[in-house]
Structures are given as structure tokens and as C-alpha cells.
Write a structure and sequence with these properties.
This protein has 15 helices and 12 strands. It folds into 2 domains: about 150 residues, Rossmann fold, CATH 3.40.50.10860; about 250 residues, Rossmann fold, CATH 3.40.50. Helix 1 packs across helix 15 and helix 6 crosses helix 7. The chain has a 7-stranded mixed β-sheet. It has a 5-stranded mixed β-sheet with strand order 1-2-4-3-5. It has about 425 residues and is of the alpha/beta class. It comes from Leptolinea tardivitalis. One of its GO terms (molecular function) is nucleotide binding. This is Glutamate dehydrogenase. Keywords: NAD, Nucleotide-binding, Oxidoreductase. Belongs to the Glu/Leu/Phe/Val dehydrogenases family.
């Protein structure tokens, strides 16, 4: 899989494009092009073999005009400060477009978590909080899981913060385990949010979801529940999913012409989304190369892995049948690819709208932590559906009103809300 070399430049380019369309004041533009605060730190960890290894960590707070910064923590070997900056900026727009009272933040550690033991992972998680705990909290910055992290790791982080602050503080972290301050529905939230926006887009396009096929890139949490929701709720068919092999670092696509069974594939997938290819082959699946997913003759493409996957090169491989791209990942499409997508008239659900389900239920989790009262799963998912549906139609209405691309419309909605909040607080 190709990763965009500089995600932050891409995020700034997308922002600059819409800032021009909005004729945004240059001073306001400069405030929003860059994060308000950045933290770079080193985390020493005593490894199981007795050595001390030092890891590089980041936390970026882009803009908190609308509320506390919010965003996940990635453990990934290719993590960079620019990736974290881009993701923090996208979180600002994501929270605004979903109309939840939070700003944008993101964190990261340069590490492949699969190379660590459970004990080493716990030490690294606690070490991350030890470096940053004075600059996060329920009222200023609330981390969450992302690529390479999971609910248990969030539980360790919440516990370390509570120890250092001297009080039980479940709201400092979201995406926690159930029973440890977590919310029902959080596991499914991002993937199901993708499905809710696809459902609304298909209504707009007058397409019957039960007659639609989809190809998905990725098979981590987002992809798994996007596939499950697309099949079980919309009655559509998913012909393939893809991911990368953590042993040989070679990407692959797992496909089946009569449709994949995501519930079965989950049983042969590790916690990082890597599918056991031998078991998949034994069950009748075909293993193809990493980019095969994008070439499939389907109605819908769902990139739900890493940034920069639909780029100037790969966009040309998209099958003419594709009518809809639903961006489950953050920043999966480069500006160069956007131009080709516009020319081909493919409807797009932009990332920070499409995948806002996770942060929306993270917000719900924080609300429940504050109340010390927890909702049922059906209540959570019903509230999520309502929020995602409202957000989709707000962007669609802007797109039609201004006759602009859906990504530009989403930025227009989000930027307007953030700028208004900055004005109301007297920042401008």
C-alpha cells in the first residue's frame, strides 16, 4: 500500500482550497493552517530482556475553539509528526461537521505494537501518559484508540492518569473497555457510521443497496463493522477486503465473487487486522495483490486503511462501474485523485464526515462518564444514526446549494462552525 509522503501538506492543501472559495481572512487562515500546540517527547521503557528502549511520542492539539481537543493515539512504525498534525487538523473538521462540541487533537508513538509483549505495551502506554498528563484531561484534551491501539491500552492510560492526578478520571480517555468506563456501541461506531452515510448517499443517488456491491480496503475495526453493517443492515454484498501481512510486509486482497463473510474473517484475523491467508484460502477465498481491491467491478469503494491510498496513480485503476466512494479511513484520497474523481462524476462521502461515527460515540462515552450513567447499546446506536444522518444532509445541502464537490462542502460546513466559535470567544 502506498502511503502519502506528507499527509500534513495534503491536509493544508485541502484547507487552502476551501479557504480560497470562502474568501477566508488571511489571518484566520494562518491560525487554522497550523496546530495551536504540539508536544514531542521521549518515552524510556524497560524491556523484558532487561534493556532500556527509548520511543518517540507526539501529541498535537490543532484547535479547541469548539471544546476540548479530541483524537486518537496511533502506535505505528511509520508515524511522523506531520501525520499526527494532519490527523489533528482533520479531527477539528470532523468534530465540527458532526456538530459535537469538541476540537481536534491526535497522538502517536513510532512503534509497531506487534513487536512488543503485553507487559512492554503496558509500560509504553503508561509512559506516554507520564509525559503528557499535565496537558490532557476531560476539559482540555481527550485521547482515544487509533491504529495500533485498543481498549485495553486505553484502560491502562486512564488508570495511569487517575493515579497521577489523584482521582478516578474515566473521562480523560475514551474507547475504554466495557466495565472500565467504556460505552456500549463504541466498537461498532466508526464502521456503522460509514454504513449510515452510505445508506443516505444511496438514497440520494437512487440506488438500491440490496443490489449494490462494495470493495473494502483494510480489515481492522472500521472495515470489519463497515462490512458487517453493509451486509446485515443494507443487504448489500462485499466482494473483497484487503490488508497487509505483518510478517512479510506485503499487502494483499482477500476476495470471493459470491461475497465475503466478515464474521468468519474476523475469526481468522489478529488484533491489527491481518488475516490468516492460509485459513482464508482453505475456506475458498482468493488471495490477490494489495491494490486489487481498487480495481474491482463494484458500485462502492470503501478505503478504510491508511492515508493516501487513492492517489494520482491508483485512481486510474478504479473500475468505470464505481458510483460511490465512502472514505472510512482518514485522508485516503489525495488532491490529485480528487480531480479525477470529480471528472468521472463519482459521488464521494469525505473522510471526516464518513468516519465521524467513532468520535461521535467517543463524545457519547465522555458524556456518560460525566453523568456516571450509561446508556444501552440500542440507545447509543440510535443517537449515532441520528447524528450521522443529520451531518450527511447538512453537507449534501451545502454541496447542492453552492454547487461544489462533497469534500469542499464538508470543509465549508466545518470551517464555518470553527470560525464562528473563534469569533464568539473573542479570538478574532
Amino acid at each position: 500500500m502506498t502511503v502519502n509522503p506528507n499527509a500534513f501538506e495534503m491536509a493544508q492543501q485541502q484547507f487552502d482550497h476551501v479557504a480560497e472559495m470562502l474568501n477566508l481572512d488571511p489571518q484566520v487562515r494562518e491560525m487554522l493552517r497550523w496546530p495551536m500546540r504540539e508536544y514531542h517527547f521521549r518515552i524510556p521503557v524497560h524491556m523484558d530482556d532487561g534493556t532500556i528502549r527509548v520511543f518517540e511520542g507526539f501529541r498535537v492539539q490543532h484547535n479547541d475553539a469548539r471544546g476540548p481537543n479530541k483524537g486518537g493515539i496511533r502506535f505505528h512504525p511509520a508515524e511522523t509528526i506531520d501525520t499526527v498534525r494532519a490527523l489533528a487538523m482533520w479531527m477539528t473538521w470532523k468534530c465540527a461537521v458532526a456538530d459535537i462540541p469538541l476540537g481536534g487533537g491526535k497522538g502517536g508513538v513510532v512503534i509497531d505494537p506487534a513487536t512488543l509483549s503485553v507487559t512492554e505495551k503496558e509500560k509504553l502506554c503508561r509512559g506516554f501518559i507520564q509525559r503528557i498528563w499535565k496537558d490532557i484531561g476531560p476539559r482540555n484534551d481527550v485521547p482515544a484508540p487509533d491504529v495500533g491501539t485498543n481498549p485495553q491500552m486505553m484502560g491502562w492510560m486512564m488508570d495511569e492518569y487517575s493515579k497521577l492526578s489523584g482521582q478516578f478520571t474515566p473521562g480523560v480517555i475514551t474507547g475504554k473497555p466495557l466495565g472500565g468506563g467504556g460505552s456500549l456501541g463504541r466498537t461498532e461506531a466508526t464502521g456503522f457510521g460509514v454504513v449510515y452515510t452510505i445508506r443516505e448517499a444511496l438514497k440520494h443517488l437512487k440506488m438500491d443497496p440490496a443490489r449494490c456491491t462494495a470493495a473494502i480496503q483494510g480489515f481492522g475495526n472500521v472495515s470489519q463493522y463497515a462490512a458487517i453493517g453493509f451486509i446485515e443492515q443494507l443487504k448489500g454484498k462485499v466482494v473483497c477486503v484487503s490488508y497487509w501481512d505483518r510478517d512479510d510486509r506485503i499487502g494483499y486482497t482477500v476476495s470471493k465473487t459470491d461475497g465475503v463473510d466478515p464474521n468468519f474473517l474476523k475469526t481468522i484475523t489478529d488484533q491489527y487486522g491481518s488475516i490468516d491467508k492460509a485459513k482464508a484460502k482453505a475456506a475458498g477465498y482468493v488471495i490477490e495483490d494489495a491494490n486489487a481491491w481498487i480495481t474491482k467491478e463494484v458500485d462502492i469503494l470503501i478505503p478504510a486503511a491508511l492515508e493516501g491510498q487513492i492517489n494520482a496513480e491508483t485512481v486510474r485503476q478504479i473500475n468505470p462501474r464505481v458510483k460511490l466512494i465512502a472514505e472510512g479511513a482518514n485522508g485516503p484520497t489525495t488532491p490529485e485523485a480528487d480531480e479525477e474523481i470529480k471528472k468521472r462524476g463519482i459521488f464521494i462521502i469525505p473522510d471526516f464526515l464518513c468516519n465521524a461515527g467513532g468520535v461521535t460515540v467517543s463524545y457519547f462515552e465522555g458524556v456518560q462518564n460525566d453523568m456516571n450513567f450509561y446508556w444501552t447499546k440500542d440507545e447509543v446506536l440510535e443517537k449515532l444514526d441520528t447524528k450521522m444522518t443529520q451531518a450527511f444532509h447538512a453537507v449534501l445541502e451545502m454541496s447542492e446549494k453552492e454547487n461544489v464537490y462533497m469534500r469542499d462542502a464538508a470543509y465549508m460546513v466545518a470551517i464555518d462552525k470553527v470560525v464562528k466559535a473563534m469569533q464568539l470567544r473573542g479570538w478574532l
